[in-house]
Design goal:
Number of strands of chain A: 0
Number of helices of chain B: 13
Shape of chain A: globular
Distance between the termini of chain A: 26 Å
Strand content of chain A: under 5%
Distance between the termini of chain B: 38 Å
Number of domains of chain B: 2
Largest sheet of chain B: 6 strands, mixed
CATH superfamily of the largest domain in chain B: P-loop containing nucleotide triphosphate hydrolases
Oligomer: heterodimer
Strand order of the largest sheet of chain B: 6-7-8-3-9-10
Helix content of chain A: over 70%
Largest interface: A-B, 24 and 27 residues
Order of helices and strands of chain A: HHHHHHHHHHHH
Order of helices and strands of chain B: EEEHEEHEHHHEHEHEEHEHEEHHEHH
């Protein structure tokens, strides 16, 4: 555990002593603020005026919070590859991976140290965004459980995106290639549910839906914790971290 | 029991045989040089020993421990500096050494002292709080060596540590390796024969994945180099004619008249390989002297001109010495 912590600490210090963490968080919050403002103004000016039934807590939840979460989730889809693409690629490129591989630590420890550092930065960005649900809370939506579970859903997606990012960065010593590969894999798991509707085979269609991060995110966004979704996310993370570990192990053979 | 024993190490890269049943031993406290041209297999061998690369066959023993069953032990006890030092340019030297010490499981209470020792040995006091990315190549190499010392392993392994350094840094590195010998066993690779001859007590010569020689450095130049060539001084006259006669001596393959001084003729003799090998146990000089006297020559002096390690190296690897002589 101490060695995972050492690797985590090294990465965190890098993130916060370089402009990366600050610039990324600032852009993320700026975009999120614009989205939130737009949703809120739209809710006040249009939704309430045209559809008086949607006024109140339900309206805030459906027209502001749920959409806000969806947009934030998409922003994390874009940010996660930026955060993770250097993790193992950079080590390979500058020859420092040998330092980790020569040390008496397991490949699991290397992968987990890197993974937790990426999750920590993305988690920090998520934490910075709590100002928005607090605003919604103050605006009258007092369903704290919905707010918390919604955020938990985003956190689960962050865990999944970061695991894909770590795996992608183990594939190449080129950060850009790793970033693009990561983005493609994340988008695949994002859009797969869209294509599930056009598949005739029922089992295949259901399988495609189950594999989609959006499908599972819907539960959380509605304030529901589904055990299936929790298992899905945890096995998703384990699968990609296992592949990353195997990729490092393959260097030995 | 030997300290480190490489036993028939084989490694393929695809179809290419990189290491061909390499076997040799490294004793405790040796400075052991792995010598070979680029692509000979030195880095592959070091990577295998550092437990970063699996051999296709063979085993490495560290006293009674095996690499195949105890990779972590090998990692813990070897300080490895690869050809490209594994340095983070965004880290300060002290922080970097702290990180390496933590990775290698140095107890928290000992980290500071270990870093202090490494900084003392490498004379990095002024650079301790500087960013690694801003250091010169020579200083980076020193930081690279320092990272092998912070967890105080008994064996230090350096892959081409002098490549790309300026003459002053090379001198520093040479002194450092000699200094490391006091507390550590050192294995280091180089294709610079001069480096090996100055620093190593023992060496293993690798060529195209095969081991051509292993043992003490002097032995290599002595047993493999000296006896093949002799310089002879004989008394007499008409030395050009004597040159022709000398070629008829049974163990002389080539003879070259070098010059005359005070009625002494100086000749450079190349001995017949087969005759030299036949008489491995006896000193070939006795046989040659006996032949010379039996054939009426008056030898005054016979000695082996000191062959350079470089020349022996190229003889052993069948490379063309004359092509390289000017470059070394």
């Amino acid at each position: 555990m101490k060695k995972i912590y050492s690797i985590w600490k090294r990465e965190i210090v890098f993130y916060f002593t370089s402009p990366l963490a600050y610039v990324l968080t600032a852009i993320f919050l700026l975009l999120l603020g614009l989205i939130f403002f737009n949703l809120f103004v739209n809710f006040v000016e249009n939704v309430q005026r045209l559809n008086p039934e949607s006024v109140g807590v339900a309206g805030l939840r459906d027209h502001v919070f749920t959409r806000f979460l969806g947009n934030m989730n998409f922003l994390f889809l874009l940010c996660a590859p930026l955060v993770t693409m250097r993790l193992l690629s950079e080590e390979q490129k500058q020859g420092t991976l040998s330092l980790l591989l020569n040390a008496p630590i397991s490949n699991w420890q290397i992968v987990l140290g890197k993974y937790f550092s990426a999750v920590s930065l993305l988690g920090f960005m998520l934490f910075c965004s709590v100002i928005f649900p607090i605003s919604i809370y103050l605006a009258g939506m007092r369903e704290v459980s919905v707010l918390v579970v919604g955020y938990l859903g985003v956190l689960f997606n962050i865990l999944a995106f970061a695991s894909i990012g770590v795996f992608s960065s183990s594939l190449s010593d080129n950060q850009l290639v790793s970033g693009v590969v990561s983005m493609v894999i994340v988008l695949f798991f994002w859009f797969i549910s869209w294509f599930s509707h056009s598949v005739d085979n029922m089992i295949l269609s259901q399988l495609m839906q189950y594999l989609s991060v959006l499908f599972h995110f819907d539960f959380f966004a509605r304030g529901l914790i589904s055990l299936t979704s929790v298992v899905y996310h945890l096995s998703f993370v384990f699968f990609f971290l296992f592949l990353s570990r195997e990729k490092l192990e393959a260097r030995y053979w | 029991m030997s300290y480190i024993r490489f036993d028939k190490i084989v490694k393929y890269y695809g179809d290419k045989l990189a290491l061909d049943e390499l076997s040799f031993e490294v004793g405790r406290g040796q400075v052991h040089g792995l010598l070979g041209l680029n692509g000979a297999g030195k880095t592959t061998l070091m990577s295998i020993f550092a437990a970063c690369l699996a051999p296709d066959n063979g085993e490495i023993f560290w006293e009674d421990r095996k690499l195949s069953s105890d990779r972590i032990f090998f990692k813990k006890n070897i300080g490895f500096l690869p050809e490209t030092p594994p340095l983070y340019p965004d880290m300060k030297v002290y922080d970097y050494l702290h990180f390496v010490a933590e990775l290698n499981g140095v107890p928290r209470g000992e980290i500071k002292a270990n870093i202090g020792n490494a900084i003392d040995k490498l004379q990095l006091h002024k650079q301790a709080s500087r960013l690694i990315g801003n250091l010169s190549k020579g200083l980076k190499q020193r930081v690279g060596v320092a990272q092998t010392l912070v967890y105080n392993p008994p064996l230090i392994m350096l892959d081409e540590p002098t490549v790309g350094l300026d003459p002053s840094s090379i001198l520093d590195m040479r002194n450092l390796i000699k200094d490391l010998k006091k507390d550590h066993t050192v294995i280091f690779s180089s294709h610079l024969l001069h480096e090996v001859s100055l620093v190593c007590t023992h060496l293993s010569l690798i060529h195209e994945g095969k081991l051509l020689f292993t043992g003490e450095q002097e032995k290599m130049t002595a047993t493999l180099g000296h006896q093949k060539h002799m310089e002879l001084l004989i008394q007499g006259d008409d030395f050009p004619a004597q040159e022709v006669l000398l070629r008829d001596i049974s163990c002389v393959a080539e003879c070259q008249f070098l010059g005359e001084e005070n009625q002494l003729g100086r000749f450079y003799l190349t001995l017949d390989d087969r005759k030299v090998n036949e008489n491995e146990e006896a000193d070939v000089r006795y046989i040659l002297l006996k032949d010379l006297i039996d054939n009426g020559f008056k030898p005054v002096s016979l000695y082996s001109p000191k062959e350079s390690l470089e020349k022996v190296f190229f003889q052993l690897t069948d490379a063309d010495w004359s092509n390289h002589e000017e470059n070394i």
